[in-house]
Amino acid sequence: MKVFPTRSCYHLMPTLDVQQGAATIKTFTDGELYVRIDEDVARKHVAVLAATPPPGDNFLELYFLLDALQRAGAIIHLFFTYFGYARQDRAQSGEALSCEVLFRFLKTFTIEETKIIHIHNAKVREFYDFQDIILLDFYVPLAHDVDCVVAPDEGAGYLAHEIARRAGKDCVVVMKKERSEHEKIAHITIDGNLKNKKILLVDDMIATGGTISRAAQVAKEQGAQTVQVAATHGIFSGKAIEDLSASVIEQIFVTNTLVQHEHPKISVIDIAPMIDQFFW
Fold first, then answer.
1. How do residues 178-191 score in pLDDT, each as one tens digit?
2. Which residue is catalytic, options 115, 169, 177, 239?
3. Could you read off the pLDDT of 128-153 as tens digits, one per residue?
4. Any catalytic annotation for residue 177?
5. What is the DSSP string of 89-141?
């Protein structure tokens, strides 16, 4: 099966054991996108590999690529390394339900199956049918080297328990988080003993870094010996890198579902060996 990546996933192709399909994707001088399929894909199974963080052009590029392949007669399998806007999965009066809108556009295409790596909230399956892929092969080896696996909030609780179970760790702690407003943490509490323990904080993503930095500080205040962090998606928005650099966290492990940049405190794990199997 040939893989047609959007440009947001070009960085993954050199280490993936797949053959890239021939396509032209470019941006005109006025900013408009152009997509063309440059080989015969009629009645052939193909995979589309995409990441859709902001800007919105990443979604437009994906939709145009899906349209071009569908018009060329391909049988499409869709694979997201990262699905943007998954955190906008609920809306109050007057707010856009952004996640549902983007899935609604996907429904206009004939897609055999959709797989998404570690979506923020798997409950969004009510908007669209997909397979949620958790890269436990990324987390579990990291957990072998610590005493306790810790979730920074209840949303990551299941993840922490599953990682600990597979790594053979008895210590699992789930913190409780209260937010005052969007992206701002009001308070984090902890129910568990972390004194003199090496801990691994686990989550699906690091965006502003506020939650993980505060959780790490709370862990240290409770006597944790060392704090490491593992998250599938390294978004690092705003002042995240600066704030995380100044935090008590010793090392942060993320994958390259999104393009990452070198930083002394951040170690990037290649997902290629973990996802090759999903293209066959």
1. 755 555 555 787 87
2. 177
3. 999 999 999 999 999 999 999 999 99
4. yes
5. ----TT---HHHHHHHHHTTS-EEEEEEES-S-GGGGGTS--EEE--HHHHHH
